[in-house]
TrEMBL record:
InterPro entries: SQR/QFR_C/D (IPR034804), SuccDH_FuR_B_TM-su (IPR000701). It is found in: Membrane. It comes from the Bacteria. GO terms for cellular component: membrane. This is Succinate dehydrogenase hydrophobic membrane anchor subunit.
Length: 152
């Protein structure tokens, strides 16, 4: 009497239904960007803090004239612009990830991401405009209201 049992047939795993035919590495690139921008932001932020707080008179020197003098240099305009853009992209990518993880309904995700991208756009555009159009010595202004750097 031979008792032979055969193993049950297992069904092959199915592919997910919503899989796109072409795969992108968007999430991988986002993950790599977060690491690279985080390191670069550390350098930019600590350089910013060192120059503003440790060099010269330190925190006592920070006023309108200090910012006006600093932003008259293309180096500091570029430094602050890079810091603004990287911080905003880094933060927006992080909040986007949180929205993807915790917003359960797709409608909620769309509303939250739309608000996030709108806030990002407004902040980056206004920040960029301020950095490049800032003039501490506007022509025709009352001399009593101008900073000390406006008078040679």
């Amino acid at each position: 009497m031979s008792d032979t049992t055969t193993a049950p047939e297992l069904a092959a795993p199915r592919a997910p239904r919503n899989r796109r035919s072409t795969r992108t590495n968007y999430e991988l690139y986002g993950w790599l960007f977060m690491r690279a921008s985080g390191v670069l932001l550390l350098v930019l932020i600590f350089g910013h803090l060192y120059m503003n707080l440790m060099v010269g008179d330190g925190i006592n020197a920070i006023d309108f004239a200090f910012v006006g003098g600093k932003w008259s240099s293309p180096l500091w305009q570029t430094w602050d612009l890079l810091m603004l853009w990287l911080a905003m992209i880094h933060g927006t990518n992080g909040v986007r990830t949180i929205i993807n993880d915790y917003a359960e309904r797709s409608g909620t995700r769309v509303v939250l991401k739309s608000a996030l991208y709108l806030a990002f756009t407004i902040t980056v555009v206004l920040g960029t405009l301020v950095i490049f159009t800032f003039d501490p010595c506007p022509v025709g202004a009352d001399p009593e209201l101008l900073a000390s750097i406006c008078f040679p």
